[in-house]
Request: fold
Amino acid sequence: MFRRRLHGCIALICAGLMTAGSAMASGSLQVSNVLLELQQADTSQGLWLTNEGATPLRAQSRLFQWTQDSSGADQLTATAALTASPPILEIAPGERQFVRVVRLQKGDAQSEQTFRLLVSELPPAARADASGDANASRGVQLLIQHSIPVFVIPQDGQTLAARHRLTSLQPYASTLSAGTDADASTLQIQNTGRQRVRISKVDFVDANGKTTSLTPGLLGYVLAGHSMKWRLPLPHTLRQSGGRIDARLNDDTQSQTLVQIPAGK
Reply:
């Protein structure tokens, strides 16, 4: 079991011979989807990997079960329920390769199953220079790892496109606490539903209607039956006037109020 930040791209450093100007940012590996959803009847889904660089690219795809623990942290563990095909591949410059996520086991149809597909750029094979040193040309490379959420939707569940518009927070419960840090607040969201909720574009709106952006992009997910906590840059001086915390749920274009904050809190 290991813990990891789960959204966006993660730059990994491949250590080699460090010389002036030797650090190279690859960034050649691109993926076509940022989310995969499988219905109960689906046996597989997939995505395209593209090499936008000028040299051949090697990549590895691995599946992990994704859960959230009682402290509000994401956890990844090995899984036999899904697999990636092919697990390791090489893509020529300007070309692309389709990777399929295949279901190997039937899961609980009553609750959403959650996984992460980690697509990792691998270091290129060492190439010897004129002196015969196989490490001389490697330098230090920044390799990209994409972390893609994979969901197996429960029976009678809905895809993100079908459920993006929520009319209320139920079955989600939100609380805000100041804690011991005067310059931040802690937002906690509990999801008692059968599917995840995605939270983005978190704002503080004061009593006069002035909006302060707290998280302009993705804050994170709360998986079905779990609770998550996030530290928001909301100082006590701003909270004192009262207001509310708004956010967008599941890619809805309209924000919803998560928490009302009385004046003086």
User: Anything to note?
Assistant: The mean pLDDT is 81.
